[in-house]
Amino acid sequence: MYKYLLVFIVAVFSSPLIAHLPENFANLSDDVQSVILEYVFFSEKAHQVWGDDFEEPTVHHLVKYLDDYHTKVNIDFAGGRIRVESERSKTPIQSLQNAIVATLLTPANPNAVDLYTAADMGLTGKPFLSGLVLDQDGQSVQTQWRAERYAKYITANHVQKRGARYWVDIPMVRSYKKRSADNYQPLVMQASQRYRVEPALIFAIMETESSFNPFAVSPVGAYGLMQVMQNTAGRDVFDKIYNRPDKPSRNYLMDPAKNIDAGTAYITILRDRYLRGITHPLTLEYCIVTSYNGGSGNLLKTFHKDRQQAIARINKMSPKAVYNHIVRHHPHEESRNYLRKVMASKKNYGN
């Protein structure tokens, strides 16, 4: 079945008619192709090599296969560690070295990297790991020469082996999250000024959502640094802020600049529309953060099933009481924990 489905998709999207379709349809075709690659060909090919150790890209992990799926790269943004491993490769050390170089020089633009094939990552533009990984001399790896030199050092001194599997672990610098935030500071400041949202809040949501993984993809279809959903937050932003009748494509949301702008714009929709009427600034912030994760409807229902009565009740409570009520009574544990995480993270970006 997969074989015939792939043949059909290739035939359709190879047709010259695609070039004459409306832009929003072309965007949809990109998403369909991504889904086909992700759930059919990609999974099947990688499973053949890795079996139960097959991994997919997630919100906090960039997973990329190379060398006809015999080499796997897993960048753990939450834990600050990179693992490069080779399974049943004919030249495991060379495969590891090639993958290390490709990883260290991966471009900062997620749309330049195809996560769902075993194609090379591309070596154009400033690497997104620049400043996050230091070589044996304590220098940031930004050039081909330095990446190749470090790859040879790593494989000569730190390779581990079990059976036909070889791997190396590469640590990120201790302050990798702060340095990641610094990389996006110009974009965050631009969005902050445009929408009147605190930069610290934007950074805190980015860290909680993706650990600053620009390649973040969630199982429910949220994309990028701020994990914007196409059909909910994305469509809302297009409609209410950008005055567009469509929704953002996957590629659109994987662009860091567009993702940060859209995520911040959605914060203003929550603030100015769905949660309008909440008076205390700190209380409003707690409600915005919780709603960013679990929706404003669920947030308000935590206080009362009627929207107006919910807002009236919120306004009668202190910010501390509202916070405690949310983390104790919100119907979704994920949203309760989300509020805790974002507010704790925000303290790191106060300056």
Give the tags:
single chain, about 350 residues, alpha+beta, Lysozyme, 3 domains, five-stranded antiparallel beta sheet, two-stranded antiparallel sheet, 15 helices, about 10% strand, elongated, disordered N terminus
Helix content: 40-55%
In the CATH scheme, what's the topology name of the largest domain?
Lysozyme
Strands, total number: 7
The structural class is alpha+beta
**CATH-defined architecture of the largest domain:** Orthogonal Bundle
Rounded to an integer in angstroms, the radius of gyration calculated over CA atoms is 22 Å
Strand order of the largest sheet: 1-2-3-5-4
Oligomer: single chain
Note the gap between the termini: 55 Å
Catalogue the unreliable spans: 1-29
Outline type: elongated
Please state the average pLDDT score. 87
SSE run: HHEEEHHEEHHHEEHHHHHHHH
Task: Give the amount of beta strand, in percent.
Answer: 5-15%
Question: Can you give me a brief rundown of this structure?
Answer:
This protein is 54% helix and 9% strand. The chain is α+β, with helices and mostly antiparallel strands. The termini are far apart.
